[in-house]
Amino acid sequence: MTYRIFGSELSPFSVKVRSYFRYKGLPHEWIPRSAATMDEFRKHAKLPLIPLVLTPEGEALQDSTPIIEKLEARHPEPRLDPADPVLAFLSALLEEYSDEWGNKPMFHYRWSREVDEISTAERIAAENLPDAPDEQRAGVVQMIRGRMPGRLSFVGSSPETAAAIEASFVREIELLEAHLAERPFVMGARPCLADLGLFCQLYESSTDPTPGAILRERAPRVCGWIERMLTPKAEGDFEEWDALAPTLAPLLRSEVGELFLPWSDANAKAIAAGEESFEVELKGETFRQGVQKYHAKSLGVIRVKRAAASDRSRLDAVLEETGCAGYLA
Ligand SMILES: N[C@@H](CCC(=O)N[C@@H](CS)C(=O)NCC(=O)O)C(=O)O
Hints:
Elements: E1 3-7, H1 12-24, E2 28-32, H2 38-44, E3 52-54, E4 60-62, H3 64-74, H4 85-112, H5 114-128, H6 134-147, H7 162-180, H8 193-207, H9 209-218, H10 220-230, H11 241-272, E5 277-282, E6 285-290, H12 293-308, H13 312-321
Parallel strand pairs: 1-2
Antiparallel strand pairs: 1-3, 3-4, 5-6
Helix pairs in contact: 1-8, 4-5, 4-7, 4-8, 4-11, 4-12, 4-13, 5-6, 7-10, 7-11, 8-10, 11-12
The protein binds glutathione.
């Protein structure tokens, strides 16, 4: 009764799902994407995206958030998210922020500077062709380097937006550094969906030369938490919102309420209006990029989760206080 995960060490969403399996103690086989496993991957995958999970019954699952939700329903113990509906929603919101915005600095740093581009392309080539002769691997490195920087615009990275994206990375890790000074995981002494979503992008950055150096210099506790999240284990209980708020509310306000949600809302409005690109004021500066279709869908999903949450008055007070409420209506 073993699950199979087709993924890559270089893919944040794959590593996120792998850590979930490890935390839950679910039997699984990790299958690194490579030339040797490509045919089997293609046979099952509906979309050319990793991770792909095959259940013991042979069902193919894609998209990390629905994968985790489906597995939570099948294997409810130990429960991933806090029982408190306010914390459970905030956990989902932080995951959404990191999946959709946190991925920008990860991808931007990876393919913007030569040093990171070479390092990443070498590692992808090594994973893909573990036994290939140097010459063949060098050809693959060149192919990857020729292709990936051209995809920076897909996540909104451009010379014009680079400074805003890099500043958001530094703020995120410094806010997390302060928060993790008091606890091993984002919501207390056990990991939740927010940890999985936040850590996986930062794990990838920690392995890349430029953002890895920034993390080690500015956020040593975040580095320790990234290590813990590779094989997460519960060490105790979740905390209450009042205990988390002094350092978690600033992260929600600064990076979700003032940055991610206004961006995601503007993106969704541009798609609804049939536009190809949009601009939005973020922290006093104009941010311009092409629309990102997937994000409008996941914004819709998180709005539905908010509408369905119990204990709305307590949740709404937190969302108001952190500047998130208006974007989630
Ligand atoms: N929303 C999806 C995103 C998956 C995704 O973007 N996967 C990337 C790697 S992290 C991918 O497969 N890109 C195409 C490729 O690498 O060939 C999820 O959460 O699983």
